[in-house]
Specification:
This protein is an alpha+beta fold. The protein contains 8 helices and 10 strands. Helix 1 runs antiparallel to helix 2.
Length: 238
């Protein structure tokens, strides 16, 4: 790499998936518009204009961006930039960080570029907030995972699923805690939030999104999104 940080961006013309791959550099991903997904194993993070993802060099990952997403990526030389964490970590794309990253698109003289790169590295911090869904791997949970990934408004209770699958609620509860680290209701709320963020980023009205992801009112949807992400629906609209 000729510079410490090399950037690129792309306006996605159609729904696009990236096969498993890794980079010899650290990568920072964020969006100028829209919401996309980064997946590492069973973990899937939502990337938005306000919340990016740091992917350490050598980390095998896949991605998905729907049509209309404008994504940006910055590759950090491992000789210059220390990694923020051992694995992928969310990064808040603050106005200052966005301004500095965008400044690298300009024709800077070498001294100005080195200063800008040093400031970017200095202000990069892991975010306390991440938009993460962990896909449970236990086979008995596969029908639940498939149903909610297809239609997050599916309102079947854990008791209902237990009856359908011929298992006890206790068995399903243990499997969710073991695989996803949380209860069924907590996991379902994260799945709904992930889908909701993508729909909001497309410009859909929050009230319509509320119904599409399983909430009977805008207020209930807003409260659930705040519990899961710490943000209101308006934070994800273009």
């Amino acid at each position: 790499m000729p510079e410490a940080i090399t950037g690129m961006d792309e306006l996605v013309a159609q729904d696009t998936s990236w096969a498993p791959h890794a980079h010899p550099t650290h990568e920072l991903l964020w969006n100028a518009r829209g919401a996309s997904l980064l997946r590492v194993g069973p973990r899937a993070w939502t990337i938005t204009p306000g919340l990016g993802m740091w992917v350490p060099a050598g980390t095998v990952h896949t991605g998905f961006a729907p049509e209309g997403t404008w994504y940006r990526a910055a590759q950090f030389s491992i000789e210059v930039a220390p990694t923020l964490a051992d694995g992928p970590v969310a990064v808040e794309i603050t106005p200052l960080l966005r301004l500095l990253l965008t400044r690298l698109d300009e024709a800077l003289d070498p001294a100005s570029r080195r200063l800008t790169e040093a400031m970017i590295i200095d202000v990069l911090r892991p975010s306390p907030t991440q938009l993460l869904v962990v896909t449970p791997a236990t086979p008995i949970l596969a029908p639940i995972v498939a149903a909610l990934e297809t239609d997050p408004s599916d309102g079947r209770t854990l008791a209902g699923w237990a009856a359908e699958l011929g298992a006890s609620e206790r068995t399903l509860t243990r499997a969710f805690h073991r695989d996803a680290g949380m209860s069924f209701l907590g996991w379902r709320a994260q799945v709904r939030a992930q889908r909701a963020i993508a729909l909001l980023a497309e410009g859909l009205d929050p009230e319509d999104v509320a119904g599409l992801v399983g909430y009977r009112s805008l207020s209930a949807f807003g409260a659930a999104l705040r519990r899961t992400t710490g943000l209101t629906p308006g934070a994800f609209r273009p």
